[in-house]
Structure prediction request, 872 residues.
Amino acid sequence: MEKTKVAIVGLGTVGTGVAKLLLDHGDRTARHAGRTLWLQRAVVRDASKPEYADLPEGVVTEDLDDVLNDPEIKVVAQLIGGLEPARTIMLKLLESGKDVVTANKALLAEHGPELFGRARELGQCIAFEAAVAGGIPIITNISQCLSANQILSLEGILNGTSNFLVTQMDRLGMSFDDAVAQAQELGYAEADPTMDVDGTDAAQKLAILAHLAFGAHPRWADIPRLGVDQLDPADLQYARELGYRIKLLAVARLGSEGLELHVSPTLVKAGTPLAEVQDAFNAIAVRGDAVGPVFYHGLGAGQMPTASAVVADIIDTAVGRTRLTFQTLKQFNGDEQPRVSLRPFSELPGRYYLRLHVNDSPGVLGEITGVLGRHQVSIASVIQHEPANDGTSDVVPLVIMTHSAPEGAAGRAANEIENLDCVVGKVIRLRVKVGE
Amino acid sequence: MEKTKVAIVGLGTVGTGVAKLLLDHGDRTARHAGRTLWLQRAVVRDASKPEYADLPEGVVTEDLDDVLNDPEIKVVAQLIGGLEPARTIMLKLLESGKDVVTANKALLAEHGPELFGRARELGQCIAFEAAVAGGIPIITNISQCLSANQILSLEGILNGTSNFLVTQMDRLGMSFDDAVAQAQELGYAEADPTMDVDGTDAAQKLAILAHLAFGAHPRWADIPRLGVDQLDPADLQYARELGYRIKLLAVARLGSEGLELHVSPTLVKAGTPLAEVQDAFNAIAVRGDAVGPVFYHGLGAGQMPTASAVVADIIDTAVGRTRLTFQTLKQFNGDEQPRVSLRPFSELPGRYYLRLHVNDSPGVLGEITGVLGRHQVSIASVIQHEPANDGTSDVVPLVIMTHSAPEGAAGRAANEIENLDCVVGKVIRLRVKVGE
Prediction:
């Protein structure tokens, strides 16, 4: 049987999982690849670590040149996170004639056009299934399986850490900080979870999906985004009372006026599929003009789900499918004009959840509805509970759900309300998912 | 831009949808295929039908030879149902040098090894995404996206007609016959819905999936199967009372003793994803040893969802991906030994729902539990309502949920119970889904 030599750069959690699949299940990968996939090298920073002792003699090396200078190594899984040295290593791999598989979404979101352009010049290819949604093969599904469709919308829970935190806050009434501490203990959150919880990670993934599904060329940093780090358990509780759950939704939706793109904690109707995504799971609801709605649900991160995607890419690359897709689709082509324009965030319609604290005095509700009315934001429902009857406070919480209004108008109305004398503290404003 | 000429054989519902996508969205298919996909011919039985008048001049023909003798036509979507002449036409297409795309699951389930063997001999390939689950791209997901995994289990709602009928019976308390009449009116059931409602269609699809996911070679006709045609609204009602829904589940599950395969109306815990699949939707829950659980939900039939899958296959075939997959995976290879053995149905463990009518007299429950006990079938819960207190009947319904027991033992116990003097009429026995 033909043999394709493979290397891994970076034996962290995912790299170790990839090595395990290649070494322990050679029969399985050979059956799907039509050839033996042979793990020739794994490049690490410190080859003396005890956990590498189980790997076959000669596989582990600290020298990238052992990969670059071995012309028999055709496919390399580049599994180093961050931008540098990941970018430089990827360029070196391409320049030495390797096809590259990567799980690094930040690298693609930041340097996609450069890396893909260089790969095309060199006649090499890049596979990146593991960069978005881990075990859910959304890249191949959009690029290949749903290729007969104009994708109309794509709404996803793309950050497992955020979803785990929100699920725990909702289930146990925990504060955000306590949920983070617990998630760190359980291995669901990094020591510094900033990029996960502030919406950066989801925005980078959304930028990649928006490019593949819509031909948009958004810079991830330009995607309007909020994270779950400002969520208060009180909002999860009110959402529940209103028949909703709060999820960190990444949304791309095509309309006649362009593409809507944003990442925000969003109230999603309870009982609908996205609302019921629990713990560290990811899910993506896609709507195509021919296929209609297709819903995907699976583990978005973790060692073996991500390794599953990386090894599928290694197989696709060894078989030659990746090369065909890469040549045909010309993903991340910097010379290509975007096929859609992005709608300005302020113009996007949306429904909103507003929570504020007001003095319990006559005329307050009228004042607030007056501001909303002036900004043409109409009210769908209100929750105002009676004040605590022990007389300790004359400040009461007020929750308002609006009908559809432009983001900009809703934001201006909320600001104006926050400045009213009868309003105490900040106005919390969250988006509400429209449609199923 | 390069041009690949395409033909369609059979302009029924799906064929018309495929023609529509090719003709109206040439820019889209060209972008994904890297070449223009040009609809050269559509072979029909009666070219004079008024609905063909909109197609471009010269496309519609009654003569298959117009396709067979045109060497420029490289890819043919063969969209005729049934076994003959579909089989003969497919062989002719392969022999004249065409790659073939088909949606005909019955043909593959019955003649897969012959057709795939011939295609391999001739150096041609066959694509069949649309044969299972319509718009859910489960074939590509199993064959390609999840290829790093040993699939452990696959549980699906694969027949949209059955699911529509069960949903309506459950929602409206309709009888099976009334639900069929309504489904026929709405276009969700064929004039003769036998193959859909008796489990044949789901068993054919399960045979294809079991082959791809597990390397099994089951004959579809050997797969134990029950349909929804015997379902009584009373069972849907009792299931609901017990916290379940009834769904026609197709199950393939790998264990140390072999592969479990069957199609049966099954009680599925309410609130779990498969239980909440409504109307004509399909869904498939896959579990892989690396990726964990992945859940797919979408439209399993209908013109445009199925056309979406056919056109994705046409694109994959034109790009060359299908050929690579076909050469590598050697699907439906009659010379290959199955990689798993099938477990005898009688040995399969399962939980069961039993419903029967008993005389309301002392000792009856004891007699029945005695029979179950002798067959080592233990009881998890019982519903026995009081008899109608108007004295009109002394026969009462009794519903029993069992713990896990082998199918054979449960069947023998149910038969023995049916023959007890205190039992009136038949014993209804349904499987209960184990696990999430």
Remarks:
- The longest strand of chain A covers residues 244-255.
- DSSP finds 15 helices and 16 strands in chain A.
- Chain A touches chain B through 54 residues (CB under 8 Å).
- The first helix of chain A runs from residue 13 to 24.
